[in-house]
Amino acid sequence: MGSIFCGHLSRLVPGAELAAVADPVPGLAERTAAEHGVAHAFVNYRDLLSMADLEAVIIATPASTHADVIEDAARAGRAIFCEKPLALSLEQCDRAIRAVEGAGIPFQIGHMRRFDAGYARARRLIEEGAIGEPVTFKAVGRDPMMPRLDYARPEVSGGLIVDMAIHDFDIGRWLMRSEVTRVFTEGGTLVFDELNTVGDFDNAVINLKFASGALGNVEVSRNALYGYDIRTEVLGSKGAVMIGRFRQTPVLLLTGEGVGYDVVPYITERFGDAYLAEVRHFVRMVQRLEEPGPSIYDGRAGTEIALAATRSYREGRPVTLPLAAAVARDAESTRTPQ
Amino acid sequence: MGSIFCGHLSRLVPGAELAAVADPVPGLAERTAAEHGVAHAFVNYRDLLSMADLEAVIIATPASTHADVIEDAARAGRAIFCEKPLALSLEQCDRAIRAVEGAGIPFQIGHMRRFDAGYARARRLIEEGAIGEPVTFKAVGRDPMMPRLDYARPEVSGGLIVDMAIHDFDIGRWLMRSEVTRVFTEGGTLVFDELNTVGDFDNAVINLKFASGALGNVEVSRNALYGYDIRTEVLGSKGAVMIGRFRQTPVLLLTGEGVGYDVVPYITERFGDAYLAEVRHFVRMVQRLEEPGPSIYDGRAGTEIALAATRSYREGRPVTLPLAAAVARDAESTRTPQ
Amino acid sequence: MGSIFCGHLSRLVPGAELAAVADPVPGLAERTAAEHGVAHAFVNYRDLLSMADLEAVIIATPASTHADVIEDAARAGRAIFCEKPLALSLEQCDRAIRAVEGAGIPFQIGHMRRFDAGYARARRLIEEGAIGEPVTFKAVGRDPMMPRLDYARPEVSGGLIVDMAIHDFDIGRWLMRSEVTRVFTEGGTLVFDELNTVGDFDNAVINLKFASGALGNVEVSRNALYGYDIRTEVLGSKGAVMIGRFRQTPVLLLTGEGVGYDVVPYITERFGDAYLAEVRHFVRMVQRLEEPGPSIYDGRAGTEIALAATRSYREGRPVTLPLAAAVARDAESTRTPQ
Amino acid sequence: MGSIFCGHLSRLVPGAELAAVADPVPGLAERTAAEHGVAHAFVNYRDLLSMADLEAVIIATPASTHADVIEDAARAGRAIFCEKPLALSLEQCDRAIRAVEGAGIPFQIGHMRRFDAGYARARRLIEEGAIGEPVTFKAVGRDPMMPRLDYARPEVSGGLIVDMAIHDFDIGRWLMRSEVTRVFTEGGTLVFDELNTVGDFDNAVINLKFASGALGNVEVSRNALYGYDIRTEVLGSKGAVMIGRFRQTPVLLLTGEGVGYDVVPYITERFGDAYLAEVRHFVRMVQRLEEPGPSIYDGRAGTEIALAATRSYREGRPVTLPLAAAVARDAESTRTPQ
Hints:
The structure is a homotetramer of 338-residue chains.
Chain A: H1 2-11, E1 20-22, H2 28-36, E2 40-42, H3 45-49, E3 56-59, H4 66-75, E4 79-82, H5 90-103, E5 107-109, H6 117-127, E6 134-142, H7 149-152, H8 154-157, H9 159-176, E7 180-188, H10 194-197, E8 203-210, E9 215-221, E10 229-236, E11 239-244, E12 251-255, E13 258-261, H11 267-286, H12 296-315, E14 319-320, H13 324-330
Parallel strand pairs in A: 1-2, 3-4, 4-5, 6-9
Antiparallel strand pairs in A: 6-10, 7-8, 7-14, 8-9, 10-11, 12-13
């Protein structure tokens, strides 16, 4: 992700100038900087943060380090864009929130799906009342391959649900315009037994209850060997909206064996435009040309649902989210444009 | 349904001769008999059962009466086709099973989706290993309208889940080739408040756990105001199969407002061929030309899951199914061709 | 086709009683009659025509015999349904027309596509002005296999264009509500060289000019080895309508090889309902319960275009249709409901 | 187009440095140069051509000026990328060819569809034999609006067929791997009467005959008011390949009115990636890192077919192309990768 953001910032984001790159792997920051024509490269991100004239940073480090890096960047007064998930525990999330609130800096969480043309159009249709009141939220999020084992371990990526379903939880809150109050997860390691060795699993279906009374179900899987398959639908009182496709090129091959087409291979093919759009939005937000996008509270809310859904899987019971305060505070965030 | 079966039996089912019709509503049996050129009409179905030379009966009475009628028909030694659901309680199911087992008569439950060309092809593909091991079962079953209130009441139709999701539970057992061992339901009355007055509700999402370890989720809704929407998919270890469509005619209209097509209005448009095929199968099974189709044990299994899922909704907790015996006994039924 | 009509008439057409079957092949009429429970079977169709109490006949003989059989049936005063094409020459067409006009009997030509739900809906949309004024008519008609050589010969079936494109010409006249005034054909024997031995060919693209000024192009092919592929579209001044599909079951299989689905194998799978609907319409028309459907003049018009398009292919030049009289006379037929 | 190319070259094409812009409209070159951070701006393109250190030029002037500008650029020894069509007459084409051949410079014509992922995949599938021998080429090219009248006039844009169908002719030659030898056009001004005032028209269907014996039909229209609709298919001896889509976002809206989706509005939404890819290819070709793409001979061939098809429309007769020499010379160009 860091490399993708470098590519975007160095060439495709009007108003942005990519000043420096930091990476703890020896030599990697230099290589990336050279590739993108960036003047400065650091091993220690704190050196980057102490540069003069630095307005904003993009954090694409492992999730377990997000809270620490956010604290440091906030202390340095830099606007922050942070990849999802915000953190791996609510304690970390709250620490990051305190730092950002204390510094009064702009912040955006990397929930890029809100910037996809399809999801954005769905949100507009729902806001316009095209499907009446949202009743049921459905999402499928399927990856085409097992992740590397060192990444899969819950203390690194958060595990299946934190790593993958957080996108669906965020889009669910955003499209349904309501907070999740209860989750129940069925899951298992059904294809990639190796995942058990690091404490992860490969498939889950997660029932959701929203504060509005609406329902939901999110499926995540690591074994869609046919390709990258992200589909979402919202059923409302007067209609429904479906978002997503898995078809890649608009080519049909018709032979005696039937009709066939190819499938989007992975996330950059499906959401490449959204990754660019979210960074453009962040830059314009820092320039005060655009309203804030998905907030640090959105980041916390997605993480909270994902942690509760993981707990539900572990404990075999529904888990209720302690939302009294959150609902009040986040009410606005699910209602802002992005 | 009774009228549809009459139409099929009187004209479209080779080898069948429709001998008589019974209906407790005064005059209705006569009218139906006249319409389809049937010689005999009765108010009391027991008079029909006592006819000489009667080989088989089709039961399309209210679900609450199924067990009683099955007992009487079994006692009379008639082969039985019974509409779904088998009954509204496990006690009734077991009473029906004892009667059928005691009489040693052929029996088929009206799970017509197994006879739909799409579902049948999906089952073949799965049996052939096209998607590897089944991992996750997903089903959407949406009706385009609220049912009549007198039908919606749980003591008549069984309520939302028994009435509608039973089709999905049966197809799930059949495609996944495994029994359901745990269910958890989120639901609510979100659109048609009147349903509350008779103790029914209009939307549910039901998580499933299968004996094989596989997962599932079934959504049922009464408010797909756009049409009748039945879709099913099975994700496997090597691929996936998706069954269903909601498009009616193969006509696209393209104007300045966008592209549009129409939607299947309701169940007879979508499953008309399957309703005919299941009766043809039943007749050939009675003639010993065909293996048995969905059995009385399939009928019980679907009812048991539906009752458990309804209880889960009422009690807000996962419900485990007491399947020790059932799994052993039904093992075969989920593995037979239909 | 005769056998299909027998099946429909003996069981599926309210108000019709199938009285007799005739077939010159020794024994075949008896066999067909037995199969469908018909009382009378003849070798010579004239014996059938002389039966008392016969109201109507369906002619499904080879096209080269249509005119003769129509003359005999008209003389006998029977209402006539005749399979397409009406005949293989305009002289034969006009002979048939004179006989039918002279006898004053009901007549319907077997242009079944007008009875397909998709084409019927397209016609309604166009009549309602949904696409503005029709501008361009496009049709693809592809068969999945080479016909038998004895059938392919032009003196039997009329050859590629008369045999296949006549459906598209009729639907073109019906949807565009205008007569064809000029045709130009490119064609060739590109796959099945054997067709050359009997004077037929396997592929053609036919440009059309309509009296209204509108344009058209019809493609016919015998080598769609992937299945039966019939698609039609009309572009109008305000939009377009597209009719057709080649997908068979609503099943998608998704694997590492891509996504695939199956294709409608042939005409009875695609147009089975339309074949039944056209016979039902004919019977109700004979009973004076329904307006006339596609007329003998429609049959002549389709044949005339097909013959002109075949001549264009042979001579490598555009062929203008002598339509002065035809346009006047047929004006109504392209504007009637079916 | 010039502005699009500036945007690409200034930011998105590795290895390219945009040195100067020229535009005869006073002030426009300066404005464009400022917008894209380009150092030099000229009113007279000859001043640009005389710059030192200039390696290549992109010509996006009106088609009527292409030949002159190519001659000047070739004389200056610059590699040339020229927008389609190559020119508006064969005399101009041949003048341009002589200049380019004489100077021995790299040249690429702007047939961007060859760089679209869908068309490129179709070409690979055909080369791999997936559909057997190509038999019939079909193309639909529909614009969503009438062009400005001053652009529509044949002496500026070449008129409907030269302006639009040239893309389809090029893709047809490329996918069929054969030259066009005969064309026949039906056309008319059916929607936008104003076009008659400048000698243009709005709809055409063009039959094609290829040297291989294969057939084709190309439809072009200016009145697809529903959106930009580009579809192509090739039927082969063993299957078919279809390329294209008109759907924009992957969003379905389902309501009581039916199901609807949106349509690609115009060319930059559909072919934006291809426009970028062709310029990247040109730059790499100049750097000798890539084989030549569509050549000046491809440019001439497309123009020749378009001029013949326009003549056919005017004269109401098939027009044969004098291809003896061209077939020999261009044989290779239809067989090279792009």
